[in-house]
Design brief:
Layout: H1 3-15, H2 21-44, H3 46-56, E1 60-65, E2 70-72, H4 74-85, E3 93-94, E4 99-100, H5 102-116, H6 120-141, H7 144-147, H8 152-168, H9 173-186, H10 201-220, H11 236-241, H12 274-287, E5 294-301, H13 303-306, H14 317-320, H15 324-334, H16 350-356, E6 359-363, H17 365-370, E7 377-383, E8 388-393, H18 406-419, H19 424-436, H20 441-448
Parallel strand pairs: 5-6
Antiparallel strand pairs: 1-2, 3-4, 5-7, 7-8
Helix pairs in contact: 2-4, 2-18, 2-19, 4-5, 4-10, 5-6, 5-8, 5-10, 6-8, 8-9, 8-10, 9-10, 12-15, 15-16
Length: 449
């Protein structure tokens, strides 16, 4: 049995098991997280979407582009939903795999469920398997993959989508393998989209969604791929890490499903920034601090949080979401780091920008050694009148070890849906749809327009 066959056989073993109740509960929350983030994401980039529609003139169709008030063709809906699902960088993911999981997957599964009349149970099962495949691949190649400049959401996410679609639509084992092989060919994702004000990070998710779908379509059409695309000198592992001798991890790593390992973001910024943001909010609230009180802030954290996230100048909202100094400054000034704190007006606030220049960041070898099991930031703050405070955060809010409560999750869900222009009645209808496990995809699409 070659490496690819071994991986797919282990995924098949997971597929043959009934899903635990804890996994089903988390899957519902993951779907709700995706929906509210995509609705808000469409609102956040409304002007760019309007320009896209004006230029591209996409054909009308039967599928909803979430938050766009348009019905388009299947592939157009998949692409736009992926774009909107990651527009705010507010979607779920894992630290261990350094990957966003739900936004590319659900962007494909929901339109396909409408097209093929799939049940709610089929969608959830496919999503869980897609999470498992994407995460297991990412875990096997990180952090070497990131060090080479790859965005695992784009690479491993494509593989997970091919797996998920092949189970959603009941492919044969042979067709599943062909879909996976095609996905290995098309997997791509560039991390330079994070740098220097680039706004193309959501594009990685959008093209991941469409390429994962096309890989499945190629397999169903009968195109044959390599019998072992993962292994060898020109295989996926060598391509993505520079080393073909990779120890491939197995599904349900450490005894828990991948979907149970995901975080839910309480702050609208890159997950690497959250420990420092939380530490800043904690000290602000404990000591009633204002921006004028601060003489300096120094943050020690793990290497991956510092790398490309220590910039004090933020030319755009996308850049602000990747900046620890800006995000900590916002946390001190506002006591939060939500959608409002990263809009184009706030990033020009002179109080924020002045404070951000007083904030320095450094990587700490001991904290780096703890990653990804523990994601730590230690914030040391000095005031203008000589006081010193320190706060350490190991597992920021939203991690599996420190999850949002049901009330906190619902409040976040409502906030995002309102930001996206949905009434409370529409938001509650969508929430009830997911909680009830309905399969009326046409009704869901209508609420999400």
């Amino acid at each position: 049995m070659n490496l690819t066959d071994l991986f797919l056989s282990r995924i098949a073993e997971v597929a043959a098991k009934p899903l635990p109740e804890s996994v089903l509960r988390k899957a519902k929350r993951s779907l709700l997280d995706y929906l509210c983030v995509a609705v808000a994401g469409a609102a956040a980039q409304r002007e760019k979407l309007a320009a896209y529609f004006d230029f591209a003139e996409p054909e009308s169709g039967d599928y909803t582009a979430i938050g766009c008030k348009r019905r388009v063709t299947l592939k157009e809906a998949v692409f736009l939903n992926g774009l909107n699902g990651h527009a705010l960088d507010y979607d779920d993911g894992t630290n261990a795999g350094i990957i966003h999981l739900g936004s590319p997957l659900f962007s494909v599964l929901l339109p396909l469920a409408q097209k093929h009349g799939c049940s709610y149970e089929q969608v959830i099962r496919a999503a869980v398997l897609g999470y498992e495949a994407s995460f297991t691949m990412a875990l096997s190649i990180q952090p070497m993959h990131k060090a080479m400049g790859y965005h695992a959401t784009g690479t491993c996410g494509t593989l997970g989508i091919a797996v998920a679609v092949s189970y959603l639509l009941d492919f044969t084992p042979e067709e599943r393998k062909e879909a996976f092989a095609a996905a290995c060919v098309s997997a791509a994702g560039m991390l330079k989209v994070l740098d220097d004000g680039s706004e193309l990070k959501p594009y990685n998710v959008a093209k991941t969604a469409i390429m994962g779908l096309i890989a499945a379509q190629m397999a169903k059409a009968g195109f044959h791929g390599h019998p072992d695309p993962l292994a060898g000198e020109r295989g996926f592992f060598k391509m993505m890490t520079g080393n073909e001798n990779i120890e491939m991890k197995l599904p349900i790593h450490s005894g828990t499903y991948a979907i149970e390992k995901t975080y839910t973001k309480p702050y609208a910024a890159c997950r690497y920034l959250h420990p420092a943001i939380e530490a800043a909010i904690t000290l602000r609230d404990q000591h009633s601090l204002t921006a004028e009180d601060i003489a300096s802030i120094h943050i020690r954290t793990y290497f991956w949080a510092v790398n490309k996230h220590d910039h004090q100048d933020v030319p755009s909202a996308a850049s602000a979401k990747m900046s620890i100094p800006y995000s900590v400054a916002a946390a001190i000034v506002y006591g939060k780091a939500g959608l409002q704190e990263y809009d184009e007006d706030d990033i020009k606030n002179p109080v924020l920008l002045t404070l951000a220049r007083k904030i320095t960041v450094a990587d700490d070898k001991e904290l780096t050694a703890l990653f990804p099991e523990i994601t730590t930031a230690i914030l040391e703050l000095k005031t203008a009148d000589g006081r010193s405070y320190q706060c350490r955060v190991d597992s920021p809010k939203g991690e599996p070890e420190n999850p949002l409560t049901d009330a906190e999750f619902y409040d976040r869900y409502r906030e995002l849906m309102r930001y996206g222009g949905k009434s409370d009645a529409e938001a509650d209808a969508v929430f009830g749809f997911v909680q009830a496990g309905s399969s009326d995809w046409a009704a869901l699409a209508q609420w999400l327009r």
